[in-house]
Structure prediction request, 345 residues.
Amino acid sequence: MVTAIGMISGGLDSTLALRLLLDQGVRVKAVNFYTGFCITETRRRLGGRTRDGEPPRNEALRAGADCGVEVELVDLSGSGYLDVVANPRHGYGANANPCIDCRIFMMSEARRIMEREGADLVFTGEVLGQRPMSQRRPTLALIEKESGLSGRLLRPLSARLLPPTIIEQEGRIDRSRLLGISGRGRKDQIALAARLGIDDYPQPAGGCCFLTDEAFGRKFHDLMDRRAERRIERDEIILLATGRHFRLGERVKLLVGRTEGENAVLDRHAEGRWRLTTPEHLGPLALVEGEPDPEQRRLASGIVARYGKGRAHPEVRVHWSRAGEELTVAVAPLADEGVLERLRL
Ligand code: SF4
Prediction:
């Protein structure tokens, strides 16, 4: 019997790939990688809720349960992955997404799991030409080679457009029952899902990874461009994904919470930073990184005041605290949209 390691996100493509192999009698062990940049999973871990007030579900676990397949959750968010994000050999996509290096990293890990489990191959739900950076034909080949999976990486949805894997050549998987889908459209996948009776899958949300988000990318590059040594810590990722960010000076940055949840996240990261609140009005919690000069203090205070309930008052008192130091800045809430936009990351 053929045994395969399936890289499953729970999205439609990887679910279809899984079903195509299960329908051929392949024994599958699924893996789901958490990079620390997965939007839904990060929100789930930070206690976020959906519109219905429920915790977001882990779609990979749900898809595995629907198909009767065991899913191993693998946390890749350690320093090795962060080093790839900070120093990708193959560069970034449109934002902060190092998709080629990321896929090589993930597939190398999948290869290790394949070897550990004595499995025959790794498969994914990738579709040739679906994504501009990582799913072009030469890139698919490069990723396969650099992850050490040459001949052992199957993409069931596009298999008939790609060179046959070893298992197909041996006739242990019937290539004629695999597909030849390519491109960005989803018509073929939706039709196949209907034929297979698959109706519970998440709609493509236009990005499930913070690194592909334009605003996150701006904040990420702003941070990295100011570093002598390119590196990033896990806590910094959480902060990059939290709140409105304003660059007040080369080494001074303001982070303003947008929701109660974000205020709580910022509060947990207040150590070593200035913590700003407006005690006389309901308002956001904010952090200032660096050593602001008096003008930057006024600016930060004006921005924080602007986002609180005191925004219509002529003057708001903003409380600053850091490691036992305390001060109060009384300012008019910043009204000038132009200044705000210029400073916003
Ligand atoms: S979008 Fe790119 S960087 Fe993000 S998880 Fe996918 S491959 Fe990795």
Q: What stands out?
A: The mean pLDDT is 94. The chain is about 35% helix and 15% strand. The radius of gyration is 24 Å.
